[in-house]
Structures are given as C-alpha cells and as structure tokens.
Amino acid sequence: MVFENKASSSSYSLPPYPREDTPLLAKSPPLSSNFKTFANIFISIVGAGVLGLPYCFKRTGWVTGLLMIFIVAALTYYCMLLLVRTRRKLESSLGFSKINSFGDLGFTICGPIGRFAVDAMIVLSQAGFCVSYLIFIANTLAHLVSTTLTGPILGLTPKVLFLWGCFPFQLGLNSIPTLTHLAPLSIIADGVDIAAKSVVMVEDVFVFMKNKPDLEAFGGFSVLFYGLGVAVYAFEGIGMVLPLESEARDKEKFGRVLGLGMTVISLLFGAFGALGYFAFGNETKDIITTNLGQGLVSTLVQLGLSINLFFTFPLMMNPVYEVVERRFWDSRYCLWLRWLIVLGISLVALLVPNFADFLSLVGSSVCVVLGFVLPALFHCMVFKDEFGWKCMVCDGAIVVFGFIVAVSGTLSSLMEIFASKA
Fold first, then answer.
1. What tens digit of pLDDT does each residue of 89-132 get?
2. Where, by residue number, does the polypeptide cross the bilayer (predicted)?
3. 280, 54 Cβ separation under 8 angstroms
4. Which of 101, 113, 174, 304 is the most buried (most CB within 10 A)?
C-alpha cells in the first residue's frame, strides 16, 4: 500500500490530478450548512433509477422489494461512512492531505492500481447512468407518439428515431468545456423532476383506489439478485460522499445528516416503487410513466422527466470526460474524444430493449463494486492493524457479499436482456 511506504514525512500531498467530482459541487462555496449538505445528498442520489422500481417490485413482490430497498439503503449508508472514516484516518493519523475524491483515496491506499480501479468503476457507472437516460427518453417519447406513429419511418422505429434525434443535441451539450452555463438549466430540471415524480405518486394512489389489482408479496429467490441490482442502481451517488463531506461546515454532524438523507430517500423510493406496483399490478411496465393514461397532465409529466434527464446527461458525463481526458489526452479538452464517447453510449442504448433490465445490469456489475466492495476493501486495508480480525470479518463479509451480488446479479440481468431480445 502506498501509505505504508512513506513514514518519514508528516504531511503528504497527492499529484495534481483533475478531480472526478461533479463540477457544480466543486465550484460551490467551500463550506455548506447542514441543510445545503442534505439538499446536495438528495440531488446526488435521486436519479432515473427510481423510475424502474415499480417494475422491480412487480418482479420481486412488494414485500421483498421494500426489504431490498431498506437493506441496500442501510448498507450504502454504512459504506459511505467507511469512506469518510478512511479518509479521516489517513488525513489525521497518517498525515495525508488533499484527499478530495474517491479516486484520490484509491491512489493514496493502493497507488495507480487503486486509482485505476476507481476510475474504471466511475466511468462504467456514469456511462451506464447516461445509457439509461437515453433509453428512458427514447421509450417515453415513442410512447407519447404511439397513437400517431404506428410504424417505422425511413426504416427506423420511433424509439430509434428519437434516440438518434437526441444525438446531435447531446453532441452540442457535451462539447461545452465547462458546465457553468448549464447550472440554471440543471436547477430548473431538478425542480421539474421532483414535481413530476410527485404527480406520478399521486396518480398511482387514485389508480390503485379505482382498480385494486391483484398483488404479489414475494416473487421468489430466482429474482432476488435481479432486484438487488435495481435497488443498488437507485442509490447512485457513492462517488460524491467525500466531496460533500469536505464541503460540510459541521463535519461532526455529517454522519447524522447523511443518515437523515438516506432515510428520507429510502422512504421515498419505497413509496414510489410500492405505489407504482399497487396501481398497475401485473400490468406495470419497465418505465412506470408509460403506464400513465392519455391526457395533458400525463404528457407534461413524461416530457418533464425526459427534459430533466436530457440536461442531466452532460453533467453525469463530466466525470467520464475528466478521467478519459486525463488518461488519454494529458488532461486537455478533446472534442472528438467526447463525441466518440457520446456515440458509443448511444449505440449501447440502441441494443438494450428494457429499461429496468439495464438498471439491474449496471447496478449489479458496477455499482455494487463501487458502492460496497471498494469502500470495504479500502477501509480494511487502512484499519486492519488497528481493529485486527474484527475489521477483517466485517469488511470481508461486505466484500464477499458484494462479489456474490455482482456475479449473480450480472448473470441474472444478462439473461433477462437476452430473453427480452429473443
């Protein structure tokens, strides 16, 4: 480990690599109140993954789905605290400084290998999020025009047509070197997103009271890992916990603020998933908004969510560009490289038929490693001499659990994707 080979100096600094942090957060005031920290936690975690939860509850059963949401939320919270404690240990007891991001932590503990592991997981997870955004936008718009566009146009289905229609605009948005000019649009989009999801939940209540479909509480063991993948994906944001803790004014209360945020988010996710499944039962679709009936309110909700994800795309891609440009273009802005990445993400979105299946795949294969395996592994490597076998058992159990979920969930998701295409 890197920190074991440097015992002669009282303070160490990391190489001046560009950060993987979200730029809007990095340019915020250096210290945040507890309320602002709570708001940033909420924004960093709540994303498109919640839209696939009702379908996940349909597959797993609503009781199993709720249990998975709360278990994953608790484990994610614990692993976030592991990262914070590991950074504090390295900075206070071992004399390291400027550990501002997940990638910095990996470099401090394991050197270039640690940074590469974190970089790879961040690139795959962020790119995976953006693939799901394109799938949602294309499927939603195709659903809205399904009554007027009943067949292919120029040999392209409506979904493919809308996906390629977004492509040139995303090339333009992702060409912006700095995302400062997108900040107002991002704030507006977040407001629209919260309002739209609130309307969906209210609509679910009215539909449930009217239809009261047959519901299944437990879906069986065969879909357990599939559901875990979707749940893990929904709690995206592990890479932001260190920047958020750095900006917190009252760092002693950060753990409580984080815990409150995770509690509120898990309750919101549980309610959204359960209400969506309760409303439509076995008719629940992979994107819950496509279950909404025709009408002005339904159309505005679906357009609002699509607009939110459309403008969120370049924000989520920025960590990918920072990593790729650092490694392949000497940390300089590279237009053609960004365009090539956007093209690759668009092509992947074309190949995935089901939104929720892709959430499960990304959640199982990447988010589990980034959210569970690496935090526990880094914590164990730093604290093993202090806590001994207890540290090895606790952290080792999380690592083993993460690998089991990653392998089983990935295989389950791939089987679902290939079955859908067949």
1. 888 776 666 787 788 888 889 889 988 989 898 888 888 888 88
2. 37-55, 61-84, 116-138, 217-236, 257-280, 300-321, 333-352, 358-380, 392-415
3. yes
4. 101
Taking alpha carbons only, the member of 140, 189, 188, 147 closest to residue 165 is 140
Q: How many domains does the chain have?
A: 1
- The answer to whether residue 54 sits within a structural domain is yes
Does residue 145 form part of some domain? Answer: yes
Confidence of residue 58 (pLDDT cuts 50, 70, 90): very high
Token digits of residue 123:
């690139």
**CATH code: domain of residue 261:** 1.20.1740.10
Rounded distance, CA 344 to CA 42, Å?
Answer: 29
* Range list of H helices, 145-253: 158-173, 183-211, 224-234, 241-247
Tens-digit pLDDT profile for residues 213-222: 888 888 877 7
- Domain containing 173 equals 26-421
Joined together, the tokens standing for residue 400 give: 């083993």
Task: Using alpha carbons, select from 80, 104, 85 the residue that is nearest to residue 15.
Answer: 104
This prediction's pTM: 0.80
CA triplet 267, 269, 271: central angle to 5 degrees? 65
Measured CA to CA, the distance from residue 370 to residue 110 in angstroms comes to 15
**How many other C-beta atoms are found inside a 10 Å radius of the C-beta of residue 347?**
11
Classify burial at 220, counting beta carbons within 10 Å of its beta carbon; exposed 0-12, middle 13-18, buried 19 or more: exposed
Distance CA 396, CA 379 (A): 10
For residue 11, being part of any structural domain is answered with no
Q: Is residue 289 part of a domain?
A: yes
